[in-house]
Specification:
107 residues; mainly alpha; 5 helices
Length: 107
């Protein structure tokens, strides 16, 4: 991760959203930077029980498309394009959710 992309990990939600709307940053660019950072930290820290970069990129591409089309309905959300990580206790369709328990390791 370069110094410039490393700084993307420290943007506030408001900063990232403003940069998306001005065209200075794309949701895909931010998501790729955060995926790169997570991959670098996954081995020593294991911050995610289930890491889903392909889902994150698909969602970022959809958000980027909304910005490019100026989709008013989607642009109304101030969180459009902001990557999100969920704690392993939140049931998420299609994503393993173990709740930190061996009983639910494959749930």
């Amino acid at each position: 991760m370069t110094g410039q992309t490393a700084g993307l990990a420290y943007l506030s939600i408001a900063q990232a959203g403003a940069m998306f709307r001005s065209g200075e940053l794309s949701p895909v660019e931010l998501t790729r930077a955060l995926i790169s950072r997570t991959e670098a930290l996954q081995q020593p820290l294991a911050p995610y029980a289930t890491f889903t970069p392909e889902i994150a990129l698909a969602q970022a591409r959809a958000a980027e498309e909304a910005f490019l089309r100026r989709d008013a309905d989607r642009l109304a959300s101030p969180l459009l394009g902001i990557p999100v990580g969920y704690k392993d206790i939140v049931m998420t369709r299609g994503v393993r959710t173990s709740g930190g328990s061996a009983l639910y390791e494959h749930y």
